[in-house]
Write a structure and sequence with these properties.
Length: 186
Amino acid sequence: MDDCLENMVTLPGLCGVSTVRRVTQVAIDVEGYYTKFGPMVLRRCRNLLKNEEAAVDAMQDTFVQLLRYQERLADEAPSSLLYRMATNVCLNKLRSSGRKKEDPDSELLQKIACAKVPEERLFAANLMNRLFSTHQESTRTIAVMHLLDGMTLQEVADEVGMSVSGVRKRLRPLKSQLEELQRSIA
């Protein structure tokens, strides 16, 4: 019984009398799954990510998640489970890589962050004042974390104690103002 996990489950009975039953769950054979379903997971990751190196990383991340949560998972329909896990891992990678690439490379943000000459620093300070004049202090913090430090929305949300959608809502008007400033300067 080395590969089985036993749990005690309390089931409500008639007239308020509960019964306790022993439930046996077969542990997942992660190594066997890797051998049998690894190629399928890798194909899924390749299809979604279109990059061999990223696909291999995503496949490994999928099996790491399987290892991490193996006690909670049932040994039923493993191909469907791994397919769904691989899809979620790849979508998360696409989301986070898209955010990191899109925002920190903004030329205006880099100019503001790297201004060294006094005139450039004054210009940058003026731009920042115009940009943040109508926003809360916490929005400024969120913007710096996400746009300059390159943190993902999830990382920013965890840091400031907000939801990802809340962080996104705070950044949306700021991004549109930034785009307007870029057009007016260009």
